[in-house]
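User: Second chain of the day. Same drill as before.
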Amino acid sequence: MKKVGARRTIENALRRYGFVCVAGVDEVGRGCLAGPVMAGAVVLDPGRHIAGLADSKLLTVQGRERLYETIVTRAMTWAVAAAEPSEIDAINIHQATLKAMQRAVLALAPLPDAVLVDAFRIPSLPMAQRGVVKGDRQCAAIAAASILAKVTRDRLMDRLHVSDPRYGFDRHKGYATADHLSAVARHGYSEAHRRSFRPPTLFDCLESEILGPVEVFDADAPKVTRPV
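Assistant: Same format as last time:
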């Protein structure tokens, strides 16, 4: 099946209504156990086309890296901002995500006339905004923002891996993979981890580390309980 890239239809429609500088905003890393939540904001140049823009999750690592370099070269203005694990723990992931997105928008120079956001509404912005459902797949500026946020965050997680290789941040980028949970069970949380995140699978993994491997049984088979 042919992959369809994000388009500039919404941005162009807003420009026809007088919004000259239209930014796209997106975030990466909301569901991770470790590392910051990262937001990107981009104002694309209407006169400089960037081929291949799409939701960062649909692109290869090489594709994201290539597009990152093109975006930062051709965009009118762009910015990335973060909310660190300590802030996430203090105010919750939703509020921290909104803070990161707000910071990214307000770091743009010049400030945009309007902001397109992937599904959110960002509080306390001094300009018009519109939430776009699945915006990173529909809107070119939001797709570009998702690529900047993703590449920036991945590079950060690679650096965290170099400073502390116990967790394999270079492989999973802080997401709750089986090997990440197993590493947390062995070593505990690091400074990069969000202590307010407690997925049930983490406790399953901790139990496995303490009591040994647990067999997985067919759901339709007779129930088996662990001896006490």
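Residues 205-228 have pLDDT under 50 and may be disordered.

User: Great, on to the next one.
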